[in-house]
Specification:
175 residues; alpha/beta; 7 strands; 3-stranded antiparallel β-sheet; 4-stranded parallel β-sheet
Length: 175
């Protein structure tokens, strides 16, 4: 075996320099503003996203990557002899985990798909920890098991500058 590689989705919000330094592969979600689609982090940077959020009259929608998108990432890693730990956006928030799991089933091999039960840097912290463990030479099965334990200890707090966007996309009422 060549070792372990970590895959996550763009919902992890990992900066490109961290992705590169730890060889973390990122499968982008699709962000749509009206009829225009962008691959998160590829065709649309965070700065561009927030600019569009202020300027566009429609709220953005996100679409999970397809199983084929994950297969395109997994296949070359498996062919190179890597085991894969794939850490993703909470299954309660998105179908991304399901797409990753279907791709893993289709390809076979040593792919361990982990539900982060989180979003944003909650996913990113787990993916980064998995990459660090992989760099230490730990096996994928052990990394996946330890990630499941780590996510139980993970607590994320966030605040927003305005409730406007939560209200506009239906997450909260007008009260």
């Amino acid at each position: 075996m060549a070792g372990v590689r970590v895959v996550t989705d763009s919902g992890a919000d990992l900066p490109p320099d961290i992705q590169q330094a730890h060889r973390i592969q990122v499968v982008p979600l699709t962000i749509s503003f009206g009829d225009k689609e962008f691959r998160d982090g590829v065709d649309l940077t965070p700065g561009q996203f927030y600019r569009k959020l202020r300027e566009e009259p429609v709220m953005p929608r996100t679409t999970q990557p397809s199983p084929a998108d994950f297969e395109k990432t997994y296949r070359p890693l498996l062919e190179a002899g890597y085991e894969i730990v794939s850490v993703h956006l909470s299954s309660q928030l998105s179908g991304t985990l399901q797409s990753a799991s279907l791709a893993a089933q289709n390809l076979g091999g040593s792919i361990y798909v982990v539900d982060s039960r989180s979003a944003s840097l909650g996913i990113g912290v787990l993916a980064l920890e998995a990459a660090r463990w992989a760099e230490q030479g730990r096996p994928a099965r052990e990394i996946a098991q330890d990630l499941q334990a780590a996510r139980e200890r993970l607590t994320i707090f966030f605040s927003v500058d305005t409730l406007e966007y939560l209200q506009r996309n239906g997450r909260i009422g007008k009260a």
